Each structure stands twice: as C-alpha cells, then as structure tokens.
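Worked problem 6 (solution included).
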Amino acid sequence: MLAIGVTLAWWAKIDISPLFDTAMIRRGELLRLVTSIFPHTGILHLAFNIYWLWIFGTLIEETLGHLRTAVLILLFAIGTGAWEFALARGGVGLSGVGYGLFGLIWMLSRYDERFTDAIDTRTVQLFVGWFFFCVFATYTKIMPVGNIAHGVGAVLGILTGLAIAKPDNRAPFTAGLGATLLLGLWGASLGRPRINLSGNGGYEEAKWGYDALMAHKNQEAVRWFRDAVTYQPKVPGFRYDLAYANQQAGNQDQAFSDYKKAADLGDVDAQYSLATQYEHGNNGLTKDTAQALYWYRKLADHGDAESLNNVAWAYATSSEPSIRNPGAALELGESHQLAERSSGSQSSRHPRRSFLRKRPARCCCKDGTGSDRTGIAHQEERFRE
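Solution. The predicted structure is:
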C-alpha cells in the first residue's frame, strides 16, 4: 500500500525527491536505498511488482512469519539498491526485491520441504526470460531497466534460500550474502567514483566541492573535486577545479600537475593559468617565458572571444620583452571583436563549463595598453571580455 500511495503522489506532481537514489547517499543518506523502492514509473511497472510481492511475500510470511519477511524485504531492498546505484544511476521500484523473493522461493522449493511446489517451472521461466528481455530492452534503448538490481536480487535471494534450506552448509552461503551486501554498500558510497559505469557521475560532487570552496573548506573541496575527476577524468572542467582547490589548500605541486592535465585536455582556464604561472614564476614554478608563450599560443588557437582577449591582454601588459607584443595584441584584440560580433554575445568557455571562474574581467585597448575593470568598457575602441 505504501508503494501505491507514494507512486500516486509522484504522479500527482507531489515532490518526493527525498526518496530517490542520489549522490546524497554518499553523504550518509543510506535510507534512500530503501525509500527508492516505493515510487514506480508506470501502471504496468507498479502492477507487476505489487502482484509478485503479494504472491511471493504471502508464501514466505505464512511460513517464516511477519518479522522475518520484513527483514528479508529490507535486505533485498538495500542490496539491490546499493548495487544499482554503485554501478549505474540508481532506480525506482520493487523489482529488485521481487527478484530477491523469486530467488529465495526458487531455492526453498528445491531444498526445503516446507516450500515444496511453492513455485512452478513456468514462473521460473517467466522470471529468467523477463530478465534477459529487460537486458535486451535496455541495450537497444527500448526502455531503461534496472538490470543490475534484478540480477543482484536473484543472487541475494538464492544465497539466502540456500542458507535457510541447508543449515549444515550455512556458513559459506551466509558469508557470500554478507560479502555481496557489504561490497554493494561500499560501491554505493566510498567506492562509487571508482566503479560507476553510467558516465554521468561527478556533477553533484563538483557542486559540493564548489560549496566547500565558498565556505573556505579547501581540503573538503579537494576531496569532492577529486571524486568528480575519478568519475570522469576526461572532463577538463573537473580537473581544473581540482587544481584550483589544491592551490587554495596549499598543495602547489599537485595543483600544477592538475593544471597541466586540464590544459592538455583543452581547458582554456587551465591554459591561461599555466601561461601566467610560467610567465611570472608563481606558486614555486620556475619562470619559463618559452613555456608561457607556448600556452598563450595554445589559448589563442581556441579562437573564442574570451581566449583571444586574454592573450591580447597578456601581450599588451607583460613585463617580459619576449612576451610583450603590442602589435600582436592589437591583432588578437580585433579578432576578439570579430568573434564577439559573430557569436552575437559573449562566448562560453567550453560545453561543460567549470563551476569556478577566478579571474577578474579585463580589456585591452587598441593602443596596446591594458587596464583592469569590473564593468563593461564604455569606449567603442575597447575590447570587451
């Protein structure tokens, strides 16, 4: 009844988001692994799961009692929810619990005389066939299904059934059950950045890293940005934010390493940071004007308005004779204006924008000089960022 009520509330547009699997599980909200079994996406989804919960649950409850049945449902909910969230995005519904009860009764019907003929061959074929159909449907994008929850549920149910039906050999089955559950909980919390296969993780952790930086909790920010990078090492914005957090935390060597990796991935903020650090010898880095020029040129190659303006600014204001180049600054400034006009607005940095923006706005004048500003330049000859 609770699943029906929650599902109807969801369909009525009532906010039930605190029940869903989200990255908040990694911050201790493990109860979401249980509460996510209540919402269902459609009438067939709800009806199928409620029907089999009633069929299997009644069989188990009549023999094992109310309390043990409730404990088994809780066990299957936690185990299947943990593995689904650990390896994928998480999901909703009772189907993982349903497969757990199926696996349990299947084994009990074979090895426990109290459950003889509790499940027939057709039901076994239905659940096995439905499992493989759901895998096919997910792979072909017909519909997304929590196949991990289905599979883990069946495994947990089988191990539980064997532990109950074979008391003389209970130890290995119980150990396997405990290991499966503990690994799932580890994967849903501490281990998720390392094992998640969804390709969509890390964004909530990056937001937490940003919040930690704003609160001046730099080491906490490093932790969350490191997790974001572990999820998706090819997202340059995550790597750049980790570099900045390490720099704020005083981890200069690690910050430089992360800036370099972000710059190699094409992040314009990281390329600009490396160029300025090499130019001025900041943060313990040896001054190297050749490297500074290399990264300024890489930045200019992006061709977007902001990158062009940043390089023009550096060429116009640098105190290094090998970098200062008013003529090149003027050309880049004109290119910057053209880029802004063609885009119709100020350019975005990259498709997946970094959460952080650290540099004040700058502008470069046509005469090759530059000046800091905080507002939009009011003279037509100024190059705007």
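Discussion: DSSP finds 17 helices and two strands in the chain.
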